[in-house]
């Protein structure tokens, strides 16, 4: 199975200059837990921000909800390709201790996000092989 078969293709991005509050609001409105951070007008993904980042890096530390996303995002997020094998991607995510990867196509354009919960487990793979 390939990443493109299981990824979420709904792409909602946020700017590095947007605030923690606007990121949280956008996550609520679009029902997602992570947003790629994109340089406006350029299209380059420079980071990723998750709901957990907002809680741990902003709220728990007593920072203002007006803190810019650039201050707490994960810089240069790991990417995978839409054609990558899901088993290999799941192993890589476990190795990196991440729950989500930004998905790019052959042109390095963002086409989705894949979450660890979207990917088949090794147990499922063994059962499917029977």
Unreliable stretches: 123-130
Shape: globular
Domain module count: 1
Could you tell me the radius of gyration in angstroms?
Answer: 15 Å
Mean pLDDT: 88
Give me the side-by-side strand order of the main sheet: 1-2-3
Number of helices: 4
Q: Examine the coordinates and then state which fold CATH places here, giving the name of the CATH topology.
A: CBS-domain
| DSSP, total strands | 6
Strand content: 15-25%
Strand/helix succession: HEEHEEHEEH
Keywords: CBS domain
Organism: Shinella fusca
Protein name: CBS domain-containing protein
Domain CBS: 7-65, 73-130
Task: Give the gist of this structure.
The chain has 130 residues and is of the alpha+beta class.
Structure description:
This protein has one domain: CBS-domain (Roll). With 130 residues, the protein is α+β, with helices and mostly antiparallel strands. The model is unreliable at 123-130 (pLDDT under 50). The radius of gyration is 15 Å and the shape is globular. Strands 1-2-3 form a three-stranded antiparallel β-sheet. The chain is 30% helix and 21% strand.
What descriptors fit this protein?
130 residues, alpha+beta, CBS-domain, 30% helix
List the helices and strands and how they pair.
Blueprint: H1 20-30, E1 34-38, E2 45-50, H2 51-59, E3 74-75, E4 79-81, H3 86-96, E5 100-104, E6 110-115, H4 122-129
Parallel strand pairs: 4-5
Antiparallel strand pairs: 1-2, 2-3, 5-6
């Amino acid at each position: 199975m390939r990443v493109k078969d299981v990824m979420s293709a709904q792409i909602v991005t946020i700017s590095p200059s947007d605030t923690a509050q606007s990121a949280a609001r956008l996550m609520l409105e679009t029902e997602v837990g992570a947003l790629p951070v994109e340089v406006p007008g350029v299209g380059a993904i420079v980071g990723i921000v998750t709901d957990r980042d907002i809680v741990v890096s902003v709220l728990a530390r007593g920072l203002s909800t007006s803190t810019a996303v650039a201050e707490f995002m994960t810089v240069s997020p790991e990417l995978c390709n839409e054609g990558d094998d899901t088993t290999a991607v799941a192993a890589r995510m476990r190795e990196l201790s991440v729950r989500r990867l930004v998905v790019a196509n052959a042109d390095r354009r963002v086409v989705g996000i894949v979450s660890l919960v979207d990917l088949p487990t090794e147990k499922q793979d063994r059962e499917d092989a029977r």
